[in-house]
Specification:
By secondary structure, the protein is α/β, with parallel strands linked by helices. The protein has seven helices and ten strands. The longest helix has 18 residues. It is globular. Bound molecules: 2-amino-2-deoxy-6-O-phosphono-alpha-D-glucopyranose.
Length: 241
């Protein structure tokens, strides 16, 4: 595990964007595993700026996103499909056919999860997976459990995650209770993993996940076992490590 300590959110975003950018420069047809949430937004903005300057070209990449809410259409403003288009794909010049995300409207959850795992396999696996960190240690939507779930699966979101996500919805009732998420094995098979965490509210979970025991009760802790894992924290999130 490599740890990069940065000054603040902007610095963290630029450092992580540099790693993604190097990945795409060295392998223009990279398969990028992407994440939603507030943490990666600064990275996407930085990458868009470099794309506009002509320093980076995403025309050959494929992207696979970690997760999607069950029941939300790709046009719902809180769907992760919409988030990705508005925060990254449109301005980065990444065409819809290059992007992949579980379908929140799939008729059969089981088939959708199987389709998504097959797709990742068909693309040749993930070259670089970008992750944020949930307050309870979740990655993607792999919530604390008794055992690690391996493949893409449907998950019941925990109360803490529903509460954390409430800020994006008009009322608590509108927050989806279920999501599809890549599993721990999908994530761990990525050839390189970068996790970004910022802010004092992440300090305790950063310490637990990366300096505590490896346990499915803190899903991100498994990343300690990955051979090419980089943790990029700002000063506040890294204050206890
Ligand atoms: C959601 C996403 C995760 C993300 C987490 C943290 O639950 N499914 O992929 O890492 O939120 O979000 P934030 O970066 O806003 O703290």
């Amino acid at each position: 595990m490599k740890i990069i300590k940065t000054r603040d959110y902007d610095h963290m975003s630029r450092q992580a964007a540099n790693i993604l950018s190097a990945q795409v420069i060295l392998k223009p047809d990279s398969v990028l595993g992407l994440a939603t949430g507030s943490s990666p937004i600064g990275i996407y903005q930085q990458l868009i700026r470099w794309k506009e300057k002509g320093d980076i070209d995403f025309s050959q990449v494929q992207t696979v996103n970690l997760d999607e809410y069950v029941g939300l259409s790709p046009d719902h403003p809180q769907s992760y499909a919409y988030f990705m288009r508005k925060n990254f794909f449109e301005e980065a010049g990444i065409r819809p056919e290059q992007t992949h995300i579980p379908s929140g409207l799939a008729k059969s959850g089981e088939e959708e999860c199987h389709r998504y795992d097959e797709l990742i396999h068909r693309l040749g696996g993930i070259d670089l997976q970008l992750l944020g960190l949930g307050l309870n240690g979740h990655i993607g939507f792999n919530e604390p459990e008794e055992a690690f779930e391996k493949g893409t699966h449907k998950v019941a979101l925990t109360d803490s995650t529903i509460q954390a996500n409430q800020r994006f919805f008009k009322s608590m009732d509108e927050v989806p209770r279920f999501a599809y998420t890549m599993g721990i094995c999908d994530i761990m098979q990525a050839r390189r993993i970068v996790l970004v965490a910022s802010g004092s509210n992440k300090a305790e979970i950063v310490r637990k996940a990366f300096f505590g025991p490896v346990t499915p009760k803190v899903p991100a802790s498994i990343l300690q076992l990955h051979t090419d894992f980089t943790l990029v924290v700002d000063e506040e999130a890294g204050s206890l490590i």
